[in-house]
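Hey team,

Filing this mostly as a record. A colleague (T.K.) asked me to run one chain through the structure pipeline before their review meeting, and I want the input and output archived in the tracker in case anyone asks later how it was produced. No errors, nothing strange. Just documentation.

Input sequence:
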Amino acid sequence: MICQFSFKNFKSYKDETVFDFQAANLPEFKDSLLGTSKPLLPVNVIYGSNGGGKSNLLKAFSCLVSIVVRPIYDLRKNQISFIQQRIGDLTCEPFLLDEGSKDQPTEFNVFFRIGGSEYRYYIALLKEQITSESLSRRTLKGKRTAVLFEREGSRITLGMSISKKSINRDVNSKMPYLSFLAINYDLPVIAEVQRWFESVIIWNDAGTKFDPGTMFTEDPVLKKELIRSMNDMGIDIHDYRIDRETNRLWIQRKINKRKYELSFDDESAGTKKLLISLPVLLPALAEGRLVIIDELDSKLHPKLLRYIIFLFTNKEINKKGAQLVFTSHDMATMRNDVFRRDEIWFAALNEDHASEIYSLYEIRRENGMRINHTAAYARQYLEGRYGADPYLRNMLSWEETE
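Output structure:
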């Protein structure tokens, strides 16, 4: 489970940006939190106007995962799922609206939990060259942090738990040392960390070619779960099949005891969206994986989006601690009966045209008090009170000008 992700000098983000999954001490939806010691959020959603930095926040994490996972995939040392293969070789483009930023490194820092341990992985890159990198670990019940390795320029220092004479410390400046160790050595702690990075699902159906032969499983348990979920959302389907010769998906319905088939291409846009998304979301829930999706709400009715959110916030369903992060423009879902205040985030440009993010929980009213958990979040957001989407405020200004 991810605890916190921070980065600096990446695309529209200039200064250090912290995206937190650690739950604040709030009264709402305590039953949805993951873990008992220092509980984590199951869901985070990012709102904001176009160009504010929502997608770039997700791209920052995608870039980090790609940096670590791509070398292993390229060398074919591990069997990587179809979802991981969608991760592109994203370049770490720095913030370009400042004279000094282009000559400064891009930095990524992520904290995550595996079992009873919390890991911290840090990497900094400048023009594709790794300038700094480190990996450390501590037990959740302990206070001491053990350094597994540190890298500054070409100098690499190994921690006691992996320090062996046989381990090579001479590595290409473009190769993450974490990936190098995972490829070349059998080190359980490194393999554990690498598997976590490989488990992250970064998904954008708009930029992905639909491949039913790869995405849709014939596993009876997962197939039954997918069909049940579709039916729960009011999409009445009886079964599906994949024509292996043409690689086409056919949706089956039973009407008056007779079976009928429609091609995936003939389904509505919303049904297609669900059929593409569920084969990604359901395995994540079953295996306790982190899912990152840009514009999950696109083409989905608000009730269907709420159902997907409910899959992750209901601990009877989300038994393995899966987490969901997505961007959205859907105002109908920005409600106090759907999200906690610390699960709602906003991305916006500051006066220097650099992106910043902040949670609803962090916002203070004129009297210094926090936004109440009974507030009408969507209405206040559209009124410009949260700062990240001035649409309605601008419309009112136009009326006053006219």
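Quick notes for T.K.: Residues 2-200+289-398 form a domain with the Rossmann fold fold (CATH 3.40.50). The chain has two domains: 2-200+289-398, 210-277.
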